[in-house]
Amino acid sequence: GLHAVQQALLPGAISYEQPRRKTHDGKSEYTALHKDAWFSDTHGFADSQRLSPPFAFRQQRVPSWMQSLLNDASHAAKAVFNGAMCRWDPPGAFKDDGPHSFSRGSP
């Protein structure tokens, strides 16, 4: 169920990246609070905000449990899903999730 998926996505269970990035205007740099992991057996995913190579996320093989989720999503959407981006925000990273967050329901 959902709890098993949550456990499978924790840091340590999968390998996350947290590279230094530049702002959209290119005038400053930062390390984002969140960490990312890209899963796809067939496609890469560019990350143009990185300050140094590689300028793409490290491609990781899709685990069997995730392939099942991608297959279900593909069937429901009638479109092919061939990868998934996982993002991990550390506890307490945000004081207020604000109106942009799904934690407060749909906009």
How much beta, percentage-wise?
15-25%
- Could you state the oligomeric state of the chains shown? single chain
Shape: globular
Count of helical stretches:
2
Question: In this structure, how is the largest beta sheet organized?
Answer: 3 strands, mixed
Spatial strand order of the main sheet? 4-3-5
Helix/strand class:
alpha+beta
Helical residue percent band: 10-25%
Give unreliable regions as ranges: none
What is the radius of gyration? 16 Å
What is the count of β-strands?
Answer: 5
Order of helices and strands: HEEEEHE
Distance between the termini: 27 Å
User: Taking all residues together, what is the mean pLDDT?
Assistant: 84
Task: Explain what this protein looks like in three dimensions.
By secondary structure, this protein is an alpha+beta fold. β1 and β2 form a beta hairpin.
Blueprint of the fold:
Elements: H1 2-8, E1 20-22, E2 29-31, E3 35-40, E4 59-60, H2 64-77, E5 83-88
Parallel strand pairs: 3-4
Antiparallel strand pairs: 1-2, 3-5
Structure described in brief:
The protein is α+β, with helices and mostly antiparallel strands and 107 residues long.
Any descriptors?
single chain; 20% helix; globular; 3-stranded mixed beta sheet; 2 helices; 107 residues; alpha+beta; two-stranded antiparallel ribbon
